Amino acid sequence: MFNHYVTLSKGQRPSFKLFLRSGNEAITIDDKFLEDKLQRLRFYRIFYEAGDISTCKTIEEKFTDKEIILPGTLSPNNLEDLTTLLTCSSCRNWMVLDLDYCHIQDYGLQLLHRSLHHSNITIDHLWLRNNDLSSSSDSSLSDIIITCKVKWLDISYNKAVGETPHFFTNILTHPSCVIEVLYMYSNNYSTTRPVMELFSSLRENKTVKELWIIGNNISDDECGVICDVLHVNHTLRVLYMSDNPITGQASQLILDAIKNNNTLEQLCLPSYPEDIKKEITSLEQVVNEKRRRRGCDVKLEIGFW
């Protein structure tokens, strides 16, 4: 308790003393109190366990629009307090849980999973970019995604999260899957198998509208699977495949596969020399003309990045 006390400003300490002494005085919580939510998050646990529900309500209201944004480094203690906030709060439908750049390790995600597994909490956006998660987190993560009905998932820049066989198949073909947007930048996969499994799952998936697969070593060898999927998928609207070693010839094959696709609106490919860009852009016009003749008013736009 002393550790909590010394982190308070001098102006807050008298209120805290009253709270400890009587149990009836609620600390005045202003915007400054929650500006650094990461260091102060454990106060929610203190107040909740002390039965100070009015202060807990004040803390909940400070999370704007049901968004929890915690930039910085989260210790296991911080994560335990975060799970207390999620599971004990009156709010059951969180819009955003932003844990980017928090240096969460596999054990931390397992802590979060244990609290959320049997809850009825939904989390629309789950952001886990730039953490220290590996494939050891895959089981916990997949259960969180399905249980909490995650619609927007960012697992970029982690240590091969999603590399466990059938990870993407399990979440993208699950009857309860509601993922609409999936970001996956530069995960350290030892092979392209996870990415190909992801694309293969899109044959059955009917929810994913945006897929950002950037810097995951997709080469011409994998483009055959991508072409097959684009023939049959009628849900995907945005596909980013920048910063992958795909040749211009393979990109043209992908465009050829899109000729009978009526839904893809944006396709972003690696940056090529100008002559190759012109060839690919001419195929964009062919795709759009075929769509127009079929009575489809959705236009394809190609970018290079």
List the helices and strands and how they pair.
Elements: H1 2-6, H2 13-22, H3 31-35, H4 37-40, H5 42-49, H6 53-62, E1 67-69, H7 76-88, E2 93-98, H8 106-116, E3 122-127, H9 138-147, E4 152-154, H10 167-172, E5 181-185, H11 193-201, E6 210-214, H12 223-232, E7 238-240, H13 248-257, E8 266-269, H14 274-293, E9 301-304
Parallel strand pairs: 1-2, 2-3, 3-4, 4-5, 5-6, 6-7, 7-8, 8-9
Commentary on this structure:
The protein has 305 residues and is of the alpha/beta class. The chain has 2 domains: 1-62, no CATH class; 87-304, Alpha-Beta Horseshoe (Leucine-rich repeat, LRR (right-handed beta-alpha superhelix)). 43% of the residues lie in helices and 13% in strands. It is built from 14 helices and 9 strands. It has helices at 2-6, 13-22, 31-35, 37-40, 42-49, 53-62, 76-88, 106-116, 138-147, 167-172, 193-201, 223-232, 248-257, 274-293, and strands at residues 67-69, 93-98, 122-127, 152-154, 181-185, 210-214, 238-240, 266-269, 301-304. A 9-stranded parallel β-sheet has the order 1-2-3-4-5-6-7-8-9, covered by helices on one side. Helix 7 (76-88) packs parallel to helix 8, helix 12 runs parallel beside helix 13 and helix 13 runs parallel beside helix 14. It is elongated, with a radius of gyration of 23 Å. The termini are far apart. Residues 1-7 have low confidence and may be disordered.
In short:
With 305 residues, the protein is an alpha/beta fold. The chain has helices spanning 2-6, 13-22, 31-35, 37-40, 42-49, 53-62, 76-88, 106-116, 138-147, 167-172, 193-201, 223-232, 248-257, 274-293; strands at 67-69, 93-98, 122-127, 152-154, 181-185, 210-214, 238-240, 266-269, 301-304. It folds into two domains: 1-62, no CATH class; 87-304, Alpha-Beta Horseshoe (Leucine-rich repeat, LRR (right-handed beta-alpha superhelix)), CATH 3.80.10.
